[in-house]
Amino acid sequence: MLDRNKRIKPRPERFQNCKDVFDLILTCEERVYDQVIEDLNSREQETCQPVHVINVDIQDNHEEATLGAFLICELCQCIQHTEDMENEIDELLQEFEEKSGRTFLHTVCFY
Asked: Could you report how far apart the first and last alpha carbons of the chain are, in Å?
């Protein structure tokens, strides 16, 4: 996994240093999900724009990473095609939980 990461990432990235604004943030590990939420909640709210933080727990091995990548890609495509993400995301996540047999964590934070 480390070799793969070296090929696809130019350097380690720290969300805490990123000041970009997102509509959706996906994490693949509950520990990282908790850190993202903690960071967002510690920031001063300026615009009150919502950001959905979703965790899809993926074990750190090639098989799980591949399956997780397809699941996340499909989830993103479905979210992109919703008419109203704010009102449809809970139902969409529930459908994906049933389909995949995985539990998703979901929190809404604000910028």
From this structure: 33
pLDDT tens for residues 65-86? 999 999 999 999 999 999 999 9
Contacts of 68 (CB under 8 A, 6+ apart): 28, 56, 58
The per-residue DSSP string of the chain comes to -HHHHHHH-SS---GGG-----SEEEESSHHHHHHHHHHHHHSPPSS--EEEEEEE---SSHHHHHHHHHHHHHHHHHHHT-S-HHHHHHHHHHHHHHHHS-PEEEEEEE-
Contact status, residue 53 vs residue 107, Cβ threshold 8 Å: yes
pTM, full prediction: 0.90
Is the C-alpha dihedral spanning 70, 74, 80, 85 positive or negative? negative
Tokens of 64: 């799980």
